[in-house]
Design a protein that fits this description.
This protein is of the alpha+beta class. The chain has helices spanning about 45-60, 65-70, 125-135, 135-140, 160-165, 175-180, 190-210, 275-280, 310-330; strands at about 10, 30, 35-40, 80-85, 90-95, 105-115, 140-150, 155-160, 215, 220-225, 245-250, 265, 290-295, 300. Helix 7 packs antiparallel against helix 9 (about 310-330). The N and C termini lie far apart (about 55 Å). About 35% of the residues are buried. Residues about 230-240 and about 250-260 have low confidence and may be disordered.
């Protein structure tokens, strides 16, 4: 068994990224006894330093930039750094919020967003490696790095890694996403998709307006509660900033009254009727049905341009999930 620094354990629900005891530096994600996720900052690697600088800037106590302040809500909370001795060497870790702590049986999907995964400082050999690693990513716009799905009938997790992700094509991605959503076994998957789509649209809205950063090889972490019999409570409500986007007759056939004067309004984000959508988004018992966070910022650079690469991947993911939702609701009619 690989040794661990004092006061740490191996995270139970890690699906991708650097695993402790593996890789060039043998350092990976850990969990501190205070509940924080620990991500190593390797001194010899500029990527770790860049990510630390990014978190420090975004969570600066004195930050007053509304664009950056809004970004905070899409990231795991940054709690500073922790330095310890490991194998007679000083090691520094970033302390981050563990998103999975809010869930009883967290189901997790890690997606690398954007067709281009190399940054502006990448050397020709790195560009070649990244380009050849997953050619389908140019079309799909994102790549599955790993997933864990709780299967209630077996009371165990289905775990898939990056090799599964590399096998996906534009034709198989919808089924892979359904596998993550546990369709058709999960009751009322359209409820879950409602929240995921709204959360993703909130992130998209931020990207459409921000001109601060560009994100390469960055990921989205999608998490939902796999235990459908358990409701998790918390002091804060995660869905407080979500709202229904009404659009008359936008989904399926128009629902009209006998005098044809009434037209059903649907949410343009999640396809549900506006009444159902609004009731779900404002239902406090649904506050921890799922979460979406941006993670992995080793290749984030300042920019005054729109981050078109990230938006291509994000829009593609939204489209795939929207089409799944659309199909589910049509099948219910």
């Amino acid at each position: 068994m690989t040794a661990l620094p004092d006061d740490t354990t191996v995270p139970l629900h890690q699906v991708a990224g650097h695993f402790h005891g593996k890789g060039k530096y043998k350092l990976g994600m850990l969990k501190h006894k205070d509940g924080s996720i620990l991500k190593p900052v390797i001194q010899e690697d500029i990527r770790g330093q860049r990510e630390k600088s990014f978190y420090t800037k975004v969570f600066d106590t004195f930050c007053s930039d509304p664009v950056v302040l809004q970004l905070q809500s899409f990231l795991p909370k940054y709690r500073g750094c922790w330095v310890t001795q490991f194998n007679s060497t000083k090691v520094e870790y970033m302390c981050l919020e563990d998103i999975t702590d809010a869930f009883n049986k967290p189901c997790i999907l890690d997606l690398k967003i954007g067709p281009r995964t190399f940054d502006p400082e990448a050397k020709p050999q790195k560009i070649k490696i990244e380009t050849e690693k997953y050619p389908a990513g140019e079309v799909i716009g994102f790549r599955i790095l790993g997933m864990r799905v709780f299967q209630s009938d077996r009371q165990e997790y289905l775990v898939l890694d990056r090799n599964f992700g590399k096998q996906q094509t534009p034709d198989t991605i919808p089924q892979a996403l359904k596998m993550f959503l546990n369709i058709p076994d999960r009751p009322k998957p359209w409820v879950l998709l409602c929240f995921f789509l709204h959360k993703l649209h909130s992130i998209r809205s931020w990207f459409l307006h921000q001109r601060h950063f560009v994100f390469y090889s960055s990921s989205l972490l999608l998490v939902y509660e796999g235990n459908t019999t358990k409701r998790i409570g918390c002091e804060r409500t995660m869905n407080s900033n979500l709202s229904c986007e009404q659009n008359k007759g936008s989904f399926g056939s128009k629902s009209t009254s006998e005098d044809n004067d009434s037209v059903t309004e649907y949410c343009s984000v999640c396809c549900l009727s506006s009444n159902i959508c609004e009731s779900l988004l404002h239902d406090s018992t649904m506050s921890f049905i799922c979460d979406v966070r941006m993670i992995d910022f080793a290749h984030v650079f300042t920019s005054h341009e729109k981050d078109a690469n990230y938006l291509v991947g994000l829009d593609s993911l939204i489209t795939y999930l929207f089409n799944i939702q659309n199909s589910l609701l049509h099948d219910m009619q």
